[in-house]
Amino acid sequence: MVTITDISQRCNVSRATVSKALNGHSDINAETAAHIRQVAKEMGYLPNATARALKLGVSHNIGVLFVDKTSSGLSHEYFSQILESVKQEAERSGYDITFISRDIGAVPMDYYEHAKYRNCDGVIVASVDFTDPAVIKLVNSDIPTVTLDYVFDSCSAVLSDNVGGMAELVRYVYGKGHRKIAFIHGEITSVTQKRLASFHKTCAELGLTIPEEYIEAATFHDPKASGLATRRLLALKERPTCILYPDDFSFIGGMNELERQGVSIPGDISVAGYDGIPLSQVLRPRLTTYRQDAETMGREAARQLVEIIERPKEWIPRQTMVPGKLLEGDTVRTIE
Amino acid sequence: MVTITDISQRCNVSRATVSKALNGHSDINAETAAHIRQVAKEMGYLPNATARALKLGVSHNIGVLFVDKTSSGLSHEYFSQILESVKQEAERSGYDITFISRDIGAVPMDYYEHAKYRNCDGVIVASVDFTDPAVIKLVNSDIPTVTLDYVFDSCSAVLSDNVGGMAELVRYVYGKGHRKIAFIHGEITSVTQKRLASFHKTCAELGLTIPEEYIEAATFHDPKASGLATRRLLALKERPTCILYPDDFSFIGGMNELERQGVSIPGDISVAGYDGIPLSQVLRPRLTTYRQDAETMGREAARQLVEIIERPKEWIPRQTMVPGKLLEGDTVRTIE
DNA sequence: CGTGTTATCTTAATCGATTTCGAAAAGTCT
DNA sequence: AGACTTTTCGAAATCGATTAAGATAACACG
Question: How many Å from the CA of A22 to C1' of C5?
């Protein structure tokens, strides 16, 4: 591998001169610098990121912590989309992406230790159990952190507008004439809590009284759980006319249960999902769902993290709300 | 941050001794070593991966190159699953994962340069245009490489059994009584070529003559393209009784077109996909599709790469074929 | 002409960890 | 006791790049 030393020998200058020439310092003669850069190019010189990181204490490397309970992590489409856009934005700013985990090899580590060990300049945290002490340790540490869909006082957060999204969804189905609206939610996380709160608040604003039995618990990304929840709703004396699901995957599980029971969609019961995965608009009927703007969220998270890293002085924790968009499919019908 | 120097001062020994104690060298007294380890633990010492990488020339870092044409990269579920299992396996062996790309920041780089710059010990390559000179440069370089779904002489490869998969699929629908089998394929890649070849070969073995018009071109992961191809097939005088699609996403696009034209599935026409994405078994009707074992592929790729990295002497390029599995859904019917 | 200034380059320390080589002390053997 | 091993530890170099501080020469100015 070509190093600075190799170049310095070829050019008959010191290593310091080469380094300065390549980094555009002003105390190097313009011609000398040009020559050095020329030679460096010819020799195919590449700076060694490792050596640089060691000396400068800055790695130009961002850690991402994406782990969900099922450890399916990336299989959740919403998160793979976020990851992809985080990656693109980080790269544009000159940062690479490294996954953070526990226990790298045989060595037991927590997330913070792993990030430190790898000299990450910052970390983006998503799709984890935010009550995990290891996560809390990380976000409260000296490492700049941006969280996705969760707020800590100690760091910036990029949030999908769950409150606004749920409100829009409820108002939409209300506008279609629905009054008996049921909500199947995912496991209790901050996201679920926000959607639940927004659901109740919006219903109240619209003058709707939602019976307790209309609120059902399921699990994110779990068609079976939502199927069961759906069955419970169908068993009620007074069936809802519309059911909201925690995500599109669960949504489809619910639709299956409805069809199995001979309930037509949206003829007998209307349904809507959340996430707006690409497939939702390919399937027939097209799913009515609230699309979370994963791309913007990832980009925004990366942008903010880079800003914190590069301008730590001016930084104060900030929450950024990313709006989504209602995708009006064919699963909610108008009723009188 | 706690460094080796800090520990050496606390223990009144040299830095060399600390390093050796922590790495279990035999020329350190057992008691001394125990004490040093104890103190290191108390002080919360973490080795600095950067310094280590610089000195040892080994980063314990694996690059992954996942870029598809639409630069949607990870949005392709097959690849996010592979990535996830690559990550898990790599971590178990003590390796971290970093994404490789071009042009990190303002600096123009090719994949090889990027991997070198980051001191990657090896790279896993998938979902790229394998005719890209930058990719070819990488796989032919001194950096150990494992490719997914593509074979170079210069490196090991992990392959989904496209030949076997397609053969199984064809034989399955043949077994169901189908004789007029159409095949919509993705853009021409090595994967497509294998499936095409296997399709023809298997049909020939079964004594089937497939008219040219039954072979249609579309694009991977593109429901519109497959919809159009489907329309062309439906316009034929002699319609096929079964259509095979390049992947499940395209598959669904094709099904939509069929339904739009009032063709019932599988009553009028049978259909089958490829990939076996999780949703394929949640949707109703359940999709008949050939499931690629992404998890095994990722794990195998990581395992082999680690082996090449750690035992370069004994290594010879090897191809590993990972079998998939036919998921028998409800989209292929039996005909007399 | 002496002093100060500027432009240009080098020396050497540094980041944190590893490792070669050697040194000192302790033990072993004849 | 003298010679030789073995055990245990440390000094110093090293990986590649950066940078503070210093050196040298050219130049300007009163």
Answer: 27
